[in-house]
Fold this sequence. Notes:
The chain is α+β, with helices and mostly antiparallel strands. Helices cover 39% and strands 12% of the residues. It has one domain (23-114). The longest helix has 10 residues, at 57-66. The radius of gyration is 15 Å and the shape is globular.
Amino acid sequence: MIGKIRRKLISLAPTPFLKAVDVVCPICDRPIPDSQKDAHHLIPKSKGGKTTEYLHRICHRQIHALFTETELAVQFNTATALQEHPEMQRFIHWVKSKPNHFYEKSRKSSRLKEI
């Protein structure tokens, strides 16, 4: 049985008659190549979330490196709220200078390591 996220990816796959539409990351506002497309639950599944948005893999990893699931569910459950956080603003400024297919491993914040 195919999962919901995979089914959503398949439904967005280009058909021979339609031109592929670039999906834009709501965090960094850059087009997402297929190889870097990650589905992010705005409210984590463990907290009852169902809605997903496509993000760059590096943006998705950075979000989870900075915030706990509780923080994501309560405070940062929209792209706008995430963009307004000072650490995310610093990251967005940095990543916008990279090519769309760029990926680098994210490190968990020291604040989360202490929890």
